[in-house]
What does this fold into?
Amino acid sequence: MPSQPTPPSPSSEPVRVTPAPVALPEPWADSRITVVVPTYDEAENLPVLVGQLMALDLPRLRVVVVDDNSPDGTGEVADKLAVDFPGRVGVIHRTRKDGLGRAYVAGMTRALAEGADFVAQMDADLSHPVGYVPQLLGTLRSTNAGVVIGSRYVPGGSLSEQWGLSRRLLSGWANAYVKTVLSMPVRDVTAGFKVWRAPALEVLDLASIESTGYAFQVEMHYRAYRRGQKLVEVPIHFEDRVVGQSKLDGAVALEAALRPLRLRRAERTHRRR
Ligand SMILES: Nc1nc2c(ncn2[C@@H]2O[C@H](COP(=O)(O)OP(=O)(O)OP(=O)(O)O)[C@@H](O)[C@H]2O)c(=O)[nH]1
Ligand SMILES: [Mg+2]
It folds into this structure.
């Protein structure tokens, strides 16, 4: 097993958060927001992410890590972070790799049960810059949106320069495909960096979500849209993962391709009834 990185202690040097976070007015900064982070082999990235989240000027922000028994020891790293940041970091340990979608359902269900008013979702690999969190939350609080999406594909949004042409084409194609099949007014339909209002999340009936992998993001957007919720997009710069490997495999890609067709069929059947 590779050696495990030690999470930074809460008293170590000041943590740099990028982009520089906007300051929210007092009642909003005091929001009960829980960030759900699914992890599989993110032992090096997780302490950096959690350290940055804890450094935000959001004193009631909590983190729920959902780890699938990562071989690199991410679960133990998460437990250590829970000790370092008492009452602010929780960990759900699952016994095996069971997909990002199911991990999110478990984490979001816990966040709602623990009384969060806002639930954020972020990848652990530092692709989603922490500095945008206050801005996404502030946008949610100042609009009647059910969810605010950190978007790569609205004006002002951008992709890491590290992303090669094939990656850009795949992402652009996947977005165009999903939009054509599901006719959703969302520019970044596969986005994974979001903040939900708790009541908006509750009515989506998380327990019945079927997607296990990346199609989860699309299914969540589609459900919210079909239930008449407002989806607002805020531009972000999407970073490439710093260390570790992507978990995108054939099964996940196949589900991502087929799920939109199933969602559309289910919706049409439902309407005919
Ligand atoms: N708990 C859990 N987390 C997962 C699983 N699959 C992926 N993740 C996590 O979900 C997040 C997104 O996965 P990534 O591998 O970064 O997917 P990606 O962003 O499409 O791929 P890269 O750009 O290459 O990083 C990361 O935090 C992963 O650790 C899973 O089966 N279980
Ligand atoms: Mg990633």
